[in-house]
Amino acid sequence: MKIHETMEKAEFASHLLAWQVLNSHFIKDLQDAKEFATLEKIRVAAYRDPIFASYAFFDEDDNSRITDPDQLYNADPDDGQCDPYYAELAAAHVKNGWKGDPTFCPHLVAQSAISDLEREILTTFSDLCGMPLAGICAKWESSLQLALKILGDLANNPLLR
Question: Chain centroid to CA 122: how far?
């Protein structure tokens, strides 16, 4: 049963306000995570791109040259270049200050943190709405935008002035 089916409007408004206050940090957290991921993308590309350019990867299906490191998943893993490339990249991660697992890309870890935070937002939103998380996540982007809009409206809420 959904919250709005079991609560009076005033009670729901109070519940919504409490949810907004409790979860308002998500807006700044998500903004910070996105900014950090953008910086990590730039930082990693600065040392990844020259390493990538020193290899000649080819698409496993059509044998065309792969010119974008983000398309490396299309390369033939048995061509003998992938393992040395990834080993060189792991060493570069460490050399450039990465403290995590060197086989993990710092930019992709930062991107994953965004997804984790979005899922946390949607989990709290699911609780607020009384809807199953699977239903909320099935419409990830629109549900996230709605949750963020509700959280963003906190700053404009006259009840908090």
Answer: 13
